[in-house]
Amino acid sequence: MNSTNEPRRSTSSAAIQASLKRRYARERRFQWYGRLAVLTGFVFLFILLADIVSKGYPAFTQQYIMVEVDFDKEQLGLAADATAEQIADADYLGLIKRSLREMFPEVTSRSEKKQLYRLVSMGAEYQLRDMVMDDPGLLGQTREIWLQAHSEAGSYLKGQVAADSDQADRKVKDQQVLWLDQLRAAGRTESRFNTTFFTAGDSREPEMAGIKVALYGSFFTLLVTFFIAFPIGVSAAVYLEEFAPRNRLTDLIEININNLAAVPSIVFGLLGLAVFINFFELPRSAPLVGGIVLSLMTLPTIIITSRAAIQSVSPSIREAALGVGASKLQTVFHHVLPVAMPGILTGSIIGMAQALGESAPLLMIGMVAFIMDAPTGITDPATVLPVQIYLWADSPERGFTEKTSAAIMVLMGFLIVMNALAIYLRKRFELK
Amino acid sequence: MDSPKALNSLSSAAGENVMDTGSTQETVASEAAPRIPLDIRDHGSVGDAYETIGTPLVENAKMSARKVNVYYGDKQAITDVSLDIGRNEVIAMIGPSGCGKSTFLRTLNRMNDIIPICRVEGEFSLDGEDIYGSGQDTVLLRARVGMVFQKPNPFPKSIYENVAYGPRIHGLAHNRAEMDEIVENSLRRASLFEEVKDSLDKPGTGLSGGQQQRLCIARAIAVSPEVILMDEPCSALDPIATARIEELIDELKENYTIAIVTHSMQQAARVSQRTAYFHLGKLIEVGETKQIFTMPRHELTENYITGRFG
CA dist A68 to A101, A138, A147, A254, Å? Predict the structure, then answer.
């Protein structure tokens, strides 16, 4: 037998040998395509991140200018027995203007004065007001106070504007540059961590604008989304997978759930507007409605991934549980769901991440409003991070460019925290 | 299907190949070629209306099945099978793959209920009670008729939890001490306790295949069933683990009634008192194990135990 097979084997092995080289070359080529693809992806990701971070990180610092303020009662128009209301209504702007004029006595013309006043933030007067409200004893005293710089002056101090560029191309005028250089030389400017960004709501002035409302809004919205979409999605998946009879009706439901996952998100926004706001008269701009709308959008994703996770649980586990006399419900809740939980959580986190990044449906239900006070509950008006980013990206002021990128960084930080939580939960459910 | 090579080599010492089944395969084979195996689809002399040879019925049976027909959709998997399982006996069910022996086993504790397209006809009783009757609860039935599966399938939980799960859901233990006792006793009876007593909180899936299967047996006996059904319990195990399980079956028959499906004829011969031979959904022959393996009365049984089917 061997002798008759011998020559054939050698010719076939020669043929295999010849083809081997080609086959290995093909494999190597394919590996290189893969590496190239990964590299390309990485490069784009790096460009994106580098761009956002480089644009956004200055937003985390804030510039201050030290101004000597004389809390002159006469200037403020306050009597010795002024009430709190009178103190609140006093003219602190005039106080600041006078202090600035005193620092630069050479400024006389109207237009120059106007430029001078633009060195400090519009919010500085409220800063002073709050100080006096806290401590009325300040009245009549003179204090050196760090006032927030105007965003344009700030951007010069941060080095974002070159002093030798054409004056027409920048908001900070030559005269202002001169003053700022003088202040810097005198040690009267300072850069601090921007707490305002995290403690304030939206504002027309970039240096006073913060992310707090959007952050709270996103948090409350996702809370509502999770507590609606997760239980309903998982229950629906369990019922469809484990209990529902297989018939035309359940087939139809399955097809429709799959189709629902592909519906453009703005359609859900229209639905939310028509049903929840116009019909049920739920509050406009509230995280409650936003959460409901986003949970509708997320539900198909959660149902589909949960079903897949439940399906992939080995039938032998079910048999084992039924075999010792567990009821169907016990089998599902004691054995199938714990095993499927990591998959369900992965699906849910994908859905939640989608919801976190969604802006279009929220525009429809009014979460695009200009809101300064942080929401304290799910029914208070709020906005969300992506909408805030959209709003800032749309603003003409230069100061908002860095805010936009900084808000994106906050959004990504939010996402990372959320994913980390999901991974932690998943690891806890995964058994060796 | 069984591996034809294995069966051929098993039967190569069986001597003369006499093709006496009336099959059309009786061809002129070259002298060097090995014997041509019989076609498994050959029914031989078994028609649709057939009678089981031997003694399918016993007196004072623990479980009995009468005129059982099982269908998967349009396909009939079991045809007109009547069989008794005696008290405290080990009955082995053998036969080629797809012959319906596992299906029959699973009808005994209604495991087939979970397959939507499966339809079961016939009369079943456990101690005279109708298993498929409207008053019968599958949860209670499965607690009384436990099952060990082909592939070891411990829960992905600790060894302790694996055993304690059944008693817990049935409320068999009233406190932690009672539960500990049930778990220890079950593991001891499954001769696993000595090996795992220090690692009861380790996951059951981390044990070896043989240990896992003994864990599954411990899990099954923890709820004190009356009958234990075993569906090829050793098919995934090596000979040493298999020997331990067989020893265990031998000990368990003191207290339990056991029905075991197996592909290993040696195993059937070693552990069982009675053997039932299934062929393509029909119960061909039932008898004392010794008699089945030494003097089979039906030619299909003989062909099977001599390894003539390929």
Answer: 11, 13, 10, 71
Tell me if chain A has a CB within 8 Å of the CB of B171.
no
Q: Could you say which architecture CATH assigns to the domain A212-429?
A: Orthogonal Bundle (1.10)
Closest to B155 (Cβ–Cβ): which among A322, A327, A335? A335
Residue A247 scores a pLDDT above 70: yes
Asked if the Cβ–Cβ distance from A319 to B223 is below 8 Å, we say: no
Alpha carbon separation from B74 to A248, B70, B71, B123, B280 (Å, rounded): 20, 10, 6, 21, 15
Q: Chain B, 191-230: which have a CB under 8 Å from a chain A CB?
A: 203, 205-206, 216, 219-220, 222-223
- Provide the strand spans (E) within B227-270: 227-231, 257-261
Measured CA to CA, the distance from residue A288 to residue A385 in angstroms comes to 16
Burial of A429 (0-12, 13-18, 19+ CB in 10 A): middle
β-pair type (B61-72, A61-70): unpaired
Q: Give, in degrees to the nearest 5, the angle at Cα B260 between B257 and B261.
A: 160
Question: What is the arithmetic mean of pLDDT over A183-193?
Answer: 89
CATH number of the domain located at residue range(s) B46-305 in this protein: 3.40.50.300
Report the residue from B116, B139, B153 with minimal CB separation from A320.
B153
The ranges assigned to domains in chain B are: 46-305
Axis-axis angle for helices A287-311, A337-356 (nearest 10)? 140
Nearest Cα to B275, choosing from B256, B260, B297, B255?
A: B260
The least confident of A254-258, B76-80, B220-224, B236-240 is B236-240
Q: How far is B233 from chain A (nearest CA, A)?
A: 13
Q: Is this prediction's ipTM beyond 0.85?
A: no
The residue in chain B having the minimum alpha-carbon distance to the alpha carbon of residue A246 is B116
Report residue B227 as tokens: 């009958």
A323 closest CB neighbour out of B140, B146, B169? B146
Tell me, what's the pLDDT at B31? 46
At B216 the three-state DSSP class reads helix
Map chain A to HEC letters.
CHHHHHHHHHHHHHHHHHHHHHHHHHHHHHHHHHHHHHHHHHHHHHHHHHHHHHHHHHHHEEEEEEEEEECCHHHHCCCCCCCHHHHHHCCHHHHHHHHHHHHCCCCCCHHHHHHHHCCECCCHHHHHHHHHHHCHHHCCCEEEEEEEECHHHHHHHCCCCCCCCCHHHCCCCHHHHHHHHHHHHCCCEEEEECCHHHHCCCCCCHHHCCCHHHHHHHHHHHHHHHHHHHHHHHHHHHHHHHHCCCCHHHHHHHHHHHHHCCCCHHHHHHHHHHHHHHHCCCCCCCHHHHHHHHHHHHHHHHHHHHHHHHHCCCHHHHHHHHHCCCCHHHHHHHHHHHHHHHHHHHHHHHHHHHHHCCCHHHHHCCCCCCCCCCCCCCCCCCCCHHHHHHHHHCCCCCHHHHHHHHHHHHHHHHHHHHHHHHHHHHHHHCCC
Give the residue extent of every domain in chain A. 58-194, 212-429
b (16+ CB within 10 A) / e for A160-191? bbeeeeeeeebbbbeebbebbeebeeeebbee
Determine the 3-state secondary structure of B210 from DSSP: helix
- Average pLDDT estimate for B72-92: 90
Greater confidence, A11 or A66?
A66
From CA B218, how far away is CA B203, in angstroms rounded? 15
| C-beta atoms surrounding B67 within 10 Å | 11
pLDDT surpasses 50 at B165: yes
Asked if the C-beta of B100 comes within 8 angstroms of chain A's C-beta atoms, the answer is no
